[in-house]
Amino acid sequence: MVGLRQIKLIELKNPNGFTLIELVITFLIIAIVGVVALSPKHYLEQIRVTQAATKIKSDIRYTQSYALSSQKKTRIYFDASSNSYSVYYESSPGTWSITSDPLTKVNFTVNLGVGEYHGVSIVQANFDGIGNGLVFNAAGTPCSCGPGGGAVTVLFSQGVVTLNTGVVVTVEPNTGKVQ
Question: What is the pLDDT of residues 71-84, one digit of tens each?
Answer without folding.
Answer: 999 999 999 899 99
